Fold this sequence. Notes:
The structure is a single chain. By secondary structure, the protein is mainly α. The chain has 2 domains: 19-51, no CATH class; 79-283, Rhomboid-like (Rhomboid-like fold). It is built from 11 helices and 2 strands; from the N terminus they run ββααααααααααα. It has helices spanning 52-61, 79-97, 101-105, 109-114, 118-121, 130-151, 153-174, 190-206, 212-227, 233-252, 258-283, and strands at residues 42-44, 49-51. It has a two-stranded antiparallel sheet. β1 (42-44) and β2 form a beta hairpin. α6 (130-151) packs across α7 (153-174), α7 (153-174) runs antiparallel to α10 (233-252) and α7 packs parallel to α11 (258-283). The longest helix is centred in the last third of the chain and has 26 residues, at 258-283. One of its GO terms (molecular function) is serine-type endopeptidase activity.
Amino acid sequence: MSTPSTPPGAADQTVPTCPRHPDRVSYVRCQRCGRPACPECSVQASVGVQCVDCVREAQRTAPVHRTALGAPLRTGRPVVTYTIIALCLISYVLQLSVDGWTGRLAFSPFTGELEPWRFVTAAFLHSTQIFHVALNMYALWIVGPYLENLLGRARFISLYLLSAIGGHVAVVLLADPLSASWFTGTVGASGAVFGLFGAIFVVMRRMGQEARGMLVIIGLNLVVGFVVPNISWQGHLGGLVTGAVLGAAYAFAPRERRTLVGIVATVAVAVLLVGAVLLRYSQV
């Protein structure tokens, strides 16, 4: 009695399956590791395909391209700048449509002591005159993307928020507790924008770029704050100084210690601002 013979090599032939999905047959193999990869686990490469594991490993080990000040180089939209602009515009609409929205979030030295979050929230409010929010958002749209790209998102957010707080701290330090200035509300992103002005001036000098034009813009805006009534020149000055200090720390930090210097400078400025305003309130 004879039995059918097995063709030579047939026992060694197996159907290739995807290692991540063993129930899926795949005759396409990764160009890097040679393993089968189903359509869900394969990525089109310049030549052939690669499996998602090899692509992830290549991304993990690939060198990170950075800007002149050490931030990861990004090619997308400046999402932090656009988010701040969107929040300010949304808040402006709420100011016009919701009763009490401005009053609950505006800042004054008196309300700041009782409700310290107003040091931040007032920077997202503006007067009902459209030119106020328009000018601030235009300045942010011009300066913000440059600094966000150069410094990175974390340092840019810190710069913006601490400059806003620094502007309001200056209002507290320069206001007279026995006068109406202690109870006068202030709104606007001007302190934060002036902080960006101060930072970009320092950064441009650090990078050897012509900064006289920016100096003229800063000077003109400061003069406007002193000449035009109902403008908080104190907030402008406080934001400018805060932004310039942080900008200098970020720009002149040694390359090998940029992260450490950035964290220490941010925390130090925050502590200094909080300490200064607490000391002032203790004296009133």
